[in-house]
Specification:
It comes from Pseudooceanicola atlanticus. 20% of the residues lie in helices and 32% in strands. The protein is α+β, with helices and mostly antiparallel strands.
């Protein structure tokens, strides 16, 4: 893999498009926010589809699936360590790496540990299987 190829667990600044914004017809994220690459898969056209989860300092509402980021993980990922932060797991953006205009800076802030990344992926997979995953397609 090349240095600018995102990998699971890496955290980037990304113009994340919330599902409620996409449902209103918006196509652009309103601001850059730290976001975590959950998974990268290759589609039938040979393009790399990134599934990206937002990171927020806003306490997730009831009914939302999120994982609080421990301070050690925040430090590894290049995030604020003096704030409580969560990775939102019940909604993701799907973006094609080769044509993405929203992933402007390809150098990550940092990366979560393999164990924390696996915990994120397991919960996203559980939500997907249960039908509780919302997806905004950015391609």
């Amino acid at each position: 893999m090349t240095a600018d190829f995102p990998a699971a667990g890496q955290v980037f600044d990304y113009h994340y498009l919330w599902k409620w914004q996409a449902d209103r017809g918006e196509t652009e994220g309103r601001k850059k926010r730290p976001s975590c690459v959950v998974l990268v898969v290759t589609n039938q056209a040979g393009q790399h589809v990134m599934f990206i989860a937002p990171i927020t300092s806003k306490v997730p509402g009831s009914g939302r699936a999120a994982l609080e980021i421990p301070q050690t993980e925040a430090r590894r990922a290049g995030l604020e360590i003096d704030l409580r932060l969560w990775v939102i797991l019940d909604e993701l953006n799907a973006d094609i790496l080769e044509t993405s205009y929203t992933l402007e800076e390809r150098t990550p802030r940092g990366s979560f540990s393999p164990a924390f990344t696996d915990a994120i992926l397991r919960e996203v997979q559980r939500l997907r299987t249960a039908g509780g995953l919302k997806l905004s397609n950015r391609s």
